[in-house]
Design brief:
Elements: E1 9-10, H1 13-33, E2 39-44, H2 48-64, E3 67-68, E4 77-82, H3 87-98, H4 101-106, E5 111-116, H5 122-131, E6 137-139, H6 147-156, E7 161-163, E8 170-171, E9 184-188, E10 190-191, H7 202-206, E11 210-211, H8 214-226, E12 231-235, H9 252-260, E13 267-271, H10 280-288, E14 295-297, H11 305-310, H12 317-331, E15 336-343, H13 350-363, E16 367-372, H14 390-413, E17 419-427, E18 434-438, E19 444-448, E20 457-465, E21 469-474
Parallel strand pairs: 1-8, 2-3, 2-4, 4-5, 5-6, 6-7, 9-12, 12-13, 14-15, 15-16, 19-21
Antiparallel strand pairs: 10-11, 17-18, 17-20, 18-19, 20-21
Helix pairs in contact: 1-2, 1-6, 9-10, 10-12, 13-14
The protein binds 5'-deoxyadenosine and iron/sulfur cluster.
Length: 480
């Protein structure tokens, strides 16, 4: 592709062929160096987009002749795929990489590599260059497809290899994928973000929004269904703006309908939706498409209109509530709402924070992902006054999580007696003969049943909601 797509361009066939040659070269180097396949350990931080990138990294490594391990101390190649969204994630990476210093001193042949969002920031790459001399390879989010070449240079050259080129607008198709799970698959439908929420680093490290071509997505989706994947999650920072850069334009709802029409027994999930672009049409599509999970991850971040404005979110509390109301009207209690919230955005007052609490009370979310604001260098919020001390923010945070715990507990009770279509994914924990399943809203229901049901969809009735899981029973008469 894509002459008909003005902004986005895919990596050329010539470049992919070049990388294939490097794949062969790495393969020759490592088979000459080791008697048996060397192991690679890929450690992933952050969101599902990073998980999906790591699956591509592992796909490429597999072709180069690597085996895999979760134990970094038995690996000949250790790759940290990093996250830059909050400082805490960055600190963990520095800590974990630092801990490998003496290991590397004693094991010269081990290659240590860092990639992902954190590396796409110049000041971080500089810090690695200066303070972590035992790191051999650093590459950014735009050049993941060049791993064979970069690794070859790291294995054979004398110099450390750094490539954090920003080739904005690029999409690499046809990269092999080694998926972590046999039933659940991540499928990126777009990359990057154009929203520039004032607190967020993502647009700076993942570049501008670009959509994959519909035919590439459909082909990968069909392949996953044929391979037996049952839960396929479409990924993008803001899936609601999918297709705006494609010609002809395609909406996210249209894409969902196309995928829903594909034959097979599977469930479609998607994340993340941005309230400013979430349309009534999308909600109607969710309600009408039988294979689309009735689960909406719709982060509102704050319940205060002033804070939302300062966050550059482009919607109000009222508009958010309107969307939730419409979604509940169409999908009822079956709909699972989840959301992200930031506590202690610069300049947020306790009164404004209380508006977040009141919004939480109104929406009855199944689950909330709550974060204390973390200052990200280079974002507009980093320059804003932030007078509230961390201890105070922690108190607010606790107030929020306590509230959500009570709401979740009362929400769990609402499931009593209800029957859900669930994907049976494995053994349960409630007892020897229990197996575990998930409903649309990702809630776990365990029931007594035969292990042969694992890997199928079943109707399960909730008998007793417990704290984190529910006890249920198989409903045999209802056909799916
Ligand atoms: N501080 C705290 N949380 C953040 N998020 C993004 N940037 C920051 C930040 N600087 C949160 C948002 C987003 C989620 C993925 O991470 O809630 O939705
Ligand atoms: Fe960050 Fe906002 Fe983009 Fe989400 S939509 S990735 S919070 S800038």
């Amino acid at each position: 592709m894509s002459e008909n797509n003005k902004k986005t361009h895919t990596v050329s066939k010539e470049e992919l062929d070049r990388q294939k040659q490097f794949t062969q070269k790495v393969s020759s180097v490592i088979s000459a160096s080791y008697d048996e396949k060397p192991k690679a350990c890929v450690i992933t931080y952050g969101c599902q987009q990073n998980v999906a990138d790591s699956e591509r990294i592992k796909g490429m490594l597999e072709l180069m002749g690597y085996d895999f391990t979760d134990n970094r101390l038995e690996a000949k190649l250790i790759i940290f795929n990093t996250c830059a969204v909050r400082e805490h994630a960055e600190d963990r990476v520095f800590g974990n990489v630092g801990a490998l210093k003496s290991y590397k001193r004693e094991n010269h042949d081990v290659v240590i590599a860092l990639c992902g969002c954190m590396m796409q920031q110049q000041h971080i790459a500089d810090k690695i260059k200066k303070s972590f001399p035992f790191v051999d390879l650093v590459f950014g989010t735009h050049v993941v497809h060049k791993l064979p070449e970069l690794l070859y240079r790291a294995l054979t050259g004398k110099k450390r290899v750094f490539d954090i080129t920003d080739t904005d607008g690029i999409i690499a198709e046809g990269i092999p994928v080694r998926r972590d799970n046999d039933a659940k698959a991540w499928l990126p439908i777009m990359y990057g973000c154009n929203n520039f929420c004032s607190y967020c680093i993502v647009p700076y490290v993942r570049g501008r929004e670009r959509s994959r071509q519909v035919e590439d997505i459909v082909a990968e989706f069909k392949c996953l269904v044929e391979q037996g994947y049952k839960e396929i999650t479409l990924l993008g920072q803001n899936v609601n703006s999918f297709g705006k850069d494609l010609e002809p334009r395609v909406t996210f709802s249209e894409l969902l309908r196309m995928l829903n029409d594909i034959d097979g027994d599977f469930r479609i999930r998607f994340m993340t939706s941005h309230p400013k672009d979430c349309t009534k049409e999308l909600i109607e599509t969710m309600a009408q498409c039988d294979k689309v999970a009735e689960h909406l991850h719709l982060p509102f971040q704050s319940g205060s209109n002033r804070v939302l404005k300062a966050m550059n979110r482009h919607y109000t509390r009222e508009q958010y509530l309107e969307l939730i109301k419409y979604a509940r009207e169409l999908m009822g209690d079956e709909l699972s709402i989840t959301s992200d919230i930031i506590v202690g955005f610069p300049g947020e007052t306790y009164e404004e924070f209380k508006e977040t609490l009141s919004l939480v009370k109104e929406i009855n979310a199944t689950q909330l992902f709550t974060f204390i604001y973390s200052k990200r260098e280079g974002t507009p919020a980093a320059k804003m006054d932030d007078p509230v001390p961390p201890e105070e923010k922690s108190r607010w945070f606790k107030e929020l999580t306590d509230l959500q715990e009570t709401i979740s507990a009362s929400q769990m009770k609402l499931h009593q007696g209800k029957t859900y279509k669930c994907y049976v994914y494995g053994k349960g924990k409630l007892g020897d003969n229990y197996i575990a399943a998930r409903n649309d809203g990702n809630l776990i229901i365990e029931f007594e049943g035969d292990e042969s049901l694992i890997g199928t969809f079943q109707n399960i009735k909730v008998i007793e909601p417990l704290t984190f899981v529910m006890r249920g029973e198989l409903v045999k008469e209802k056909q799916l």
